Amino acid sequence: MKILYKALFLLLVMITIGVSIYNYTQDFDIGYNQPPIPPVPDQTKYRLKLYFGSPRNNRLVSEERVIVSTEQQPEKLIVEELIKGPRNKTLKPSIPPETKLLSIKTIDNVCYVNLSRSFLDTYRWDLMNEAITIWSVVNSLTEIHEIQAVQFLIEGNRVGAIEKYYSLKEPFYRNEELLRKEVITPFDTFNVFLEYLRAGNYDSAYKMLSKPSIEKVDFLKFKLNMGTYIRELRDYEITKYQTQKYSSKVVLQMTYEKKPTAITYLGDEFTESWEMVFENGEWKIVMPI
Fold it and tell me: Where is the GerMN domain (predicted)?
């Protein structure tokens, strides 16, 4: 009997071992044939500093935003958040919400931002500000240490001006001035120039000239010519103007009309043009030679 019990016990042990081995191989085969489970992407907390238009849309105001995302390109996240617009409803959006970010990449410290055509086609000229639009993107992206400049592309191509003043064919660099003071257009700059001349402040007016103009025209000649010029304009006022944008300059064309009851020698109305260039974040006047 003892021999029988031992035989039955050994048989039971062998059956148990066999079943265990079978189950193990089945589990192994099932796991082996199934595709691997992809890892869950790590989420990153980004603390972004975005720039939008001020309530009057004449300078930049920063808005900090914390985003938790699986996105590995912070520059992509920045532009997408700019397109969504400011959370602070007193600030002005800088990019049309219809705009699509087609691609974005940074090469040699220049970030190439490729936007859809709707960026231009749906731009609200009556509500938006060209300079605010450009530097809201540039200043937001250059918060990233590796990015020093931004090149705008429209569906993969470099294009001319958004509206009047700025060409998108070359990269833009960070502009801290728009954080401290209002946007100054070429026409605004020229009006300041005229005010300096009317007040006899020729030193300040001379400093508003472009660098090549200062190199070609000395101060005494400038003072003599501008003294005559401003005396002739004494009884005139600018009634309308238009701006023409070229690749490297802006031409400001203004129409002057004689003030009521004024006696002058230039006629009741005349038109003149001045060239202006953008140097070191400011509009400068090109002195006619």
Answer: 75-163
For residues 145 and 241, which has the higher predicted lDDT (pLDDT)?
145
Interatomic CA distance for residues 65 and 78, integer angstroms? 10
Answer yes or no: are the C-beta atoms of 94 and 53 closer than 8 Å.
yes
The residue type at 114: N
The superfamily in CATH containing domain 186-286 is: NTF2-like; domain 1 (3.10.450.100)
CB 154 within 8 A of CB 119: yes
Sequence spans of domains, the chain? 44-180, 186-286
What is the phi-psi region of residue 135: left when phi exceeds 0, alpha when psi lies from -120 to 50, beta otherwise? alpha
Bridging pattern class, strands 101-107 and 60-69: unpaired
Is the confidence at residue 10, as pLDDT, over 70? Answer: no
Cβ atoms of 273 and 252 closer than 8 Å:
yes
